[in-house]
Amino acid sequence: MIDIQLDEEQQQIAETVTSFAKQQIRVAAREADENNTVPASVIDQAWGLGLIQNAIPEAYGGYGADASAVTGTVIAEGLAEGDLAIAMHALSPKLVVDPVLHLGNDEQKQRILPTYTGEKFAAGSAAVSEPRWNFSVSTMTTTAKSDGGDYVLNGNKCLVALAKDAPFTIVYAKDDNGVVGAFIVEQGTAGYNVGEREANLGLRALATYEVALEDCKVPAANRIGTDAQPMLRRARVAQAAMAVGVAKASLDYAIVYAKDREVFGVKVAQKQAIAFMLADMAIDVDAARLLAWEAAWLIDEGEEHMREVALADQFAADAVMTITDNGIQVLGGHGFIRDHPSELWARNGRGFVTFEGLASV
Amino acid sequence: MNFKLSEAATQRRDIMRMAAEGLMRPIARQYDEEEHTDAWDFFNAMWEASKSNRDAASMTGEGNADKKEKSSGETKRKRRENTLMSAVQIEELAWGDAGLYLSIPNPGLGGAAVSAAGTPEQKARFLGSFHDGKPKWAAMAITEPHFGSDSKQVATTARRDGDEWVLNGTKIFCTSGHRALEKSEGFVVVWATLDKNKGRAAIKSFIVPAGTPGVIVTKCEDKLGIRASDTAQITFEDARVPADHILGSPEIVEKGTEGFRGVMATFDATRPIVAASGIGVARAALDFVKQALADEGVEIRYEAPQCEMTVLEHEIIWMESQLQASRLLTWRACNMMDRGDRNSREAAMSKAKAGKVCTLVTQKCVAIMGPLGFSRKLLLEKWMRDAKITDIYEGTQQINQMIIARDILGYSSSELN
Ligand SMILES: Cc1cc2nc3c(=O)[nH]c(=O)nc-3n(C[C@H](O)[C@H](O)[C@H](O)COP(=O)(O)OP(=O)(O)OC[C@H]3O[C@@H](n4cnc5c(N)ncnc54)[C@H](O)[C@@H]3O)c2cc1C
Fold first, then answer.
1. Identity of the residue in B1, B9, B408 whose CB atom sits nearest the CB atom of A293
2. Do B23 and B42 touch, CB atoms closer than 8 A?
3. Is the pLDDT of residue B25 over 50?
4. pLDDT band for position B79 (50/70/90)?
5. A297 contact residues in B (CB cutoff 8 A)
6. Three-class DSSP category at B175
């Protein structure tokens, strides 16, 4: 029976994450963006919430709580409402944990997961995107050639978050049969060459890199499952949820501002042109969230979800652009000034059409 | 959380789909072209079906939820799905034909008002009459020539005279008004004011049965779409109804606007339903286009790279995502209603979104199909005409935006209007 609401536990997680995002993340966001660094203290605090450890079974040192994709969207949205770069940094372990957990074998779980259940935060990373205007998963050119018991990876990747810090990076590449596979690459593996830190429109605080894979040899045992497409779909749902968080941040800020700012003798929010814009933003924030929930729920149920993920992803990527743009418009000239966070959200929101492999649920 | 229809809802949906395909689509064009005629075969079939459905329900102990209130967990569970179930069924019927769907003999909006604000006695008397006999309609008359959105401007008057109320005024745009008053033993719920100087508090609604002297249907509108549905102008010239035909209390409570609020609250139930009907029309158009493309071997690649997608693929995926967004907003609003949660904002969101989306989607479908979209041989152009009303009645786009804006801003109607 249709029942479109969070259960009590999810509701609680949402509240915890949102209040953390507002109190700890939001206040650090501007400085992080200006300094191109995510403060370690915020990441440590986020680690303390146990959001990553929760999803890992006790057998591998985790807390064995809820690992559902729906709960994943709740966490992703909540943290992103604080700041997208910090959220992506804090949740980066999932880029490794999720594929291993959902597609990996027991040996891989034993080997990898304990890294992400310790006292301290450990970063995770994924290499999906490639630096071409026409990149998509289907046009991926990075290859994984079988070579005896090994795979040899070759290709260029970009937007690889935390490539320098993460003990493990999941590299996505096409095997000899053209199937996109996920390969665990340990930090320090020969031929895994991290290039310069990238300079981007948004997500400035998040350290992303170009990575060149040059005859990078990994054992066959490092391939996670066979077809990695399901993993990438999970990732798209997480991105959609994060887009909702960014859009919501922008909307809520605009509401507060519009109720305070006076124009022509009334609050600007009392002008219909603005009030109705806010109403439309609110509708699409909710709509995008519902689509993300539905896609995540289908994943959790093991139902067919290719189409729903694509719809959720498309809708959210469009909505976050329009909403964060309007978020600036409501503030007028002040929206253009970096004293206000609206422009930051708009820069971050622009990226969702491009992101592939920066988030996971 | 659950995004799967219950078995009961799936069953009802499939039955409605059969009616839509078998009974509605074949006559959709005819009753669009022959405006102001009555599809009696269809009306009778739907009337008999709903009667036997009701009989079956009362025999198995389903339905009649009001009487059986909370007698068992089973009934309670069923009740929790009522609004959602309606939305699911109405999407199918509107997919069949929106004008014919609106014309199905049933208590409609008038009935909704009676169930929301009527006494048990009024419900038994006026809704009970829909359980047998010949097909009947009920309607709701709020709009007048000089106002629509601003419903506190009601100028039709109700004056007490002994044991009766005397109504005077003119109502327009009353859906099924003609069939309720002149084609059946139905009734119209009429909004009238007891005192024009006292604003909202003095606006009351009255049940006016067919055959009441002084009630005259003066016109049936010619329309852009939903032509199978009658849209009546009704004048009241010293029309008398018994004292107990008023819905709610006859008192004018100066400060509180409880009565008015109560009536407005019925919109929280009806807006998601209107949204669902719009979604049905838009889905009809989109289904048609997708089928036409599939027949030509054109496949929609949902995961193709942005730069490789054709404009057509972009459009289809955009339409599908917008339509699914509308549907989920609608289902959420229904869900909340069924749980007994306040849903004014969510109901308005579903209606505003659906109004915009189904208008755009049907227009795009006409454009995509080129000359086929423009031709009256097919139904695409009709769906475009039928969809538009979704954004107008039960609160226009702008009125719903206002409701949402007030809610998120914490504004009263005097602060934002
Ligand atoms: C086919 C059909 C069936 C109908 N069925 C029924 C029925 O069964 N019963 C019934 O009572 N009525 C019915 N109506 C009436 C319908 O509810 C009204 O037409 C609708 O509420 C709009 O009112 P209006 O047409 O007077 O437009 P107006 O209120 O005059 O509005 C004109 C325009 O101004 C906008 N507007 C109005 N107020 C504001 C504001 N404060 N801020 C910003 N913009 C504003 C509106 O959105 C609209 O775009 C029906 C109408 C049609 C066409």
1. B1
2. yes
3. yes
4. low
5. 1-3
6. strand
Q: What is the mean pLDDT of residues A237-241?
A: 96
Task: Give distance in angstroms: CA of B397 to centre of ligand 1.
Answer: 9
Q: Do A294 and B331 touch (CB under 8 A)?
A: no
CB pairs under 8 A between A and B: 150
Cα of B141 from ligand 1 centre, angstroms: 12
User: Rounded to an integer, what distance in angstroms lies between the CA atom of residue B4 and that of residue B155?
Assistant: 47
Ligand 1 midpoint to CA B398 (Å):
10
Whether A333 and A242 map to the same domain: the answer is: yes
Topology (CATH level 3) of domain B7-67+76-106+117-127: Butyryl-Coa Dehydrogenase, subunit A; domain 1 (1.10.540)
pLDDT of residue B66: 43
pLDDT class of B67 with cuts at 50, 70, 90: very low
Q: What is the mean pLDDT of chain A?
A: 95
pLDDT tens figures, B252-277? 876 555 566 666 778 898 999 999 99
Return d(Cα A215, Cα A297) in angstroms, integer.
39
**Residue at A361 is within a domain:** no
For residue A15, give Cα distances in angstroms to A20, A56, A74, A154, B216.
Answer: 8, 21, 10, 44, 58
- Interface mutation target, options B77, B286, B303, chain A, most CBs of A under 10 Å: B303
Is the minimum CB–CB distance between A19 and chain B shorter than 8 Å?
no
A87 and A163 fall within a common domain: no
* CB distance A305 to A232 below 8 Å: no
Q: Which domain holds residue A163?
A: 125-224
pLDDT at B263: 67
Same domain, A89 and A146: no
User: What pLDDT does B58 receive?
Assistant: 54
Average pLDDT over residues A81-95: 97
Query: Between chains, do A276 and B402 touch, taking CB under 8 Å as contact?
Result: yes
pLDDT band at B184 (very low <50, low <70, confident <90, very high): very high
Q: A269 to chain B: nearest residue by CA?
A: B409
Q: How many other C-beta atoms are found inside a 10 Å radius of the C-beta of residue B180?
A: 32
User: Is beta strand B157-161 parallel, antiparallel or unpaired with respect to B164-175?
Assistant: antiparallel
Contact B325 A139 (CB under 8 A): no
Q: Which residues of B are catalytic?
A: 394
Q: Choose one of B137, B147, B172, B173 to mutate for the ligand 1 pocket test, by most ligand atoms within 8 angstroms of C-beta.
A: B173
Percent helix, strand, coil in chain A, to 5, is: 55, 15, 30
3-state helix, strand, coil in chain B (%, to 5): 60, 15, 30
By Cβ distance, the residue of B324, B331, B416 closest to A311 is B324
Token pair listed for B414: 């005097």
Helices (H) and strands (E) in chain A, counts: 12, 10
The residues lining ligand 1, judged by C-beta closer than 6 Å to any ligand atom, are A 272; B 109, 139-143, 147-149, 173-175, 223, 231, 389, 392-393, 396, 398-399, 402, 417
Q: Strand pairing partners for A194?
A: A211
Out of A282, A301, A306, closest to residue B408 by CB? A282
Which residues make beta-bridge pairs with B2? A3
Choosing among 2.30.110.10, 3.50.50.60, 2.40.110.10, 2.40.37.20, the CATH entry for B135-247 is 2.40.110.10
Q: Does residue A304 belong to the interface with chain B, where contact is any CB pair within 8 Å?
A: no
Could you tell me which CATH number the domain at B258-409 has?
1.20.140.10
**How many Å apart are CA A208 and CA A354, to the nearest integer?**
14
Q: How far is CA B45 from the centre of its chain?
A: 20
The residue-averaged pLDDT of A30-35 equals 96
Q: Which amino acid is at B347?
A: A
Question: Is the full-model pTM beyond 0.90?
Answer: yes
Record the tokens describing residue B44, joined without a space.
Answer: 């009778």
Closest Cβ opposite residue A1 in set B81, B307, B404: B81
Residues A155 and A189 in one domain: yes
Ligand 1 atom at minimum distance from B398 CA: 47
